[in-house]
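Protocol step 4 of 5: obtain the predicted structure for the target chain.
Materials: sequence only (see below). No template structures provided, no constraints applied. The aim of this step is simply to have a reference model before the mutagenesis design in step 5. Sequence pasted as it appears in the construct record:
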Amino acid sequence: MRIATCRLPEVRGDVARALALMSDYACEAERCGADLVCFPECFLQGYDLRSDHISSMAVELGSAIVEEVLKSLSSVQPAVVFGLIEQAEGVAYNSALAIQGEKAIAHYRKTHLLSEETRIFGRGNGSPIFDVQGANVGINICSDLSVAESIRYAAALGITVLVCPCNNMLPHALAEEWKFRHHDIRSRHAKAHGVWIVSSDVTGERDGRISYGPTSVIDPMGTVVAQVPLQEVGMVVAEIH
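Step 4 output (structure tokens):
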């Protein structure tokens, strides 16, 4: 199985641009022979915790916007995992969808929310599994990866690969502190639980913030086998054994 993962420029409040980027990179992943491609956290509408952004941009899974995403990506062969802001019964969720062939094949809501996210998002539960070329694939989102129980739970369900949409647009000092800690933590968890960890993030700077969040593939020995260079837009493809 081959997995592609992307680091993309941060897009906020522009679904058309986000979808165009996903379409372009999904097509490129297909040309590279990928079976699965991963995009960042909340990428469809942009990661923004302001209440006006959430209220105006959150979508239900059966909405016209989600149907447009399914239709736009229906012709690509790889399964696609991307983050979005979901609305369900009056509650907003930091969610991720895995889609293929114009249908959703897995749906996950972030479980281990950051403190500032708890004011905005409902907490998810469970850990979906979907099949890609005979491999069991699970989903986490960003800070889920810092919690050993999250990876342990998914591994106990029999996953081989954990794909993780992320967004680490942080204040400069905090970004510097976490510049290499992300890989240290993820490598330790991958080795401890015998799973591949695949992360996708954004890059860029705005309002005193910067994103160094790694976009990488880590094998079950904890080795980073592929990574988009920090602060660069791009994609890597790795073979999952």
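Step 4 remarks: The mean pLDDT is 96. The helical segments are 15-31, 51-57, 64-72, 148-156, 172-177, 181-193.
Proceed to step 5.
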